[in-house]
Every structure is written in C-alpha cells, then in structure tokens.
Design goal:
By secondary structure, the protein is mainly beta. The chain is built from 1 helix and 11 strands. The strands form 3 sheets. Strands 1, 4, 5, 8 and 9 form a 5-stranded antiparallel β-sheet that branches. The protein is elongated, with a radius of gyration of 23 Å.
Length: 154
C-alpha cells in the first residue's frame, strides 16, 4: 500500500517538474461567430431587390492577446436566399473598440458595385492598441445590415 502511494507521489513530482521545465506557453485564441442577416429590400438602378431569410454574416478571428494574425468576414446564404441576386453595392468594415466601447480604429472596406451572393473580406494582421472588441459590419447601399463582434481580452 505504501509503495503504491510512494509511486504515485514520485510520478506526480516528476510530472510537475517536467511541466516547470517547459514553462508557460503562450495562449493562442480564436473565435468564430455568425449572426442572421435580417430580410430587407433595397433599390439599385431603379430595380427593387430583396434579401430573404437564410443569410448569415460570419466573423472569424485568430490571434494572441492584442495581436490579430487572421481576420475574415463574409456572408453565406442557404435555401431560397441562395437563389437571389445577392448583395449589390456592398462593403465590409472592421472596427476596434476599447473596453469603454469607444471606437479607436476602423478599416473601411471598398464599396463593390457588382452584385455578389457571398461577399467576403479579409483584414490585414495587426496589433491592437487596447483590449476591447473587434467588430465587423456588412453595409449594403450604405446601410448597416449586420454586425458581429468578438471580445479581445487578456
């Protein structure tokens, strides 16, 4: 009985010593979130277009601490929405807010006059000045139609 306990104690000490030699590892983080794009109608060149239910705006982010190594946002549509004309005059913006919810940086996307069923944009890797939130926004004809945010914390 004592030898089993001693064996377990020795194993635990050796394992903890091995972990101490390795040291703390950096914490890598990533997040993905989607939000539904609400049904809406808009006009382009006199034609009325409708975005039906079934589209989702997704934001993917990877990094460590305040360093963002990858960020992408886009729309995916299914069911009836996938059959439509898509999004015309669209753009995707990225914004960064501090812990007081104040925007301190923005990356405005280019407005795309063509219609696209699956608009998407990636943003360059960067180091943020503050902890807070990284958000992305889908705008169609200058009107914000969907937003998705991730908290950036220690």
């Amino acid at each position: 009985m004592i030898s089993k306990q001693l064996s377990r104690l020795v194993t635990a000490v050796v394992a903890s010593g091995a972990l101490a030699l390795v040291g703390p590892q950096p914490a890598y983080a990533g997040a993905m979130g989607s939000t539904p794009v609400q049904t809406f109608e808009y006009s382009v060149g006199g034609a009325s277009l409708k975005i039906p239910t079934g589209c989702f705006f997704t934001h993917v982010i990877r990094g460590q601490g305040r360093k963002i190594s990858y960020q992408n946002a886009g729309v995916d549509c299914g069911f009836v929405a996938a059959l439509g004309s898509g999004f015309c005059n669209w753009r995707i913006d990225f914004t960064y807010k501090d812990t007081n919810n104040r925007t301190y940086r923005a990356s405005r996307g280019r407005t795309h006059p063509e219609c696209k069923k699956d608009p998407m944009r990636s943003n360059a890797p960067q180091r943020l000045a503050h902890f807070g939130k990284a958000c992305t926004h889908l705008l169609v004809s200058g009107v914000r139609r969907a937003s998705q945010c991730h908290h950036i914390t220690k």
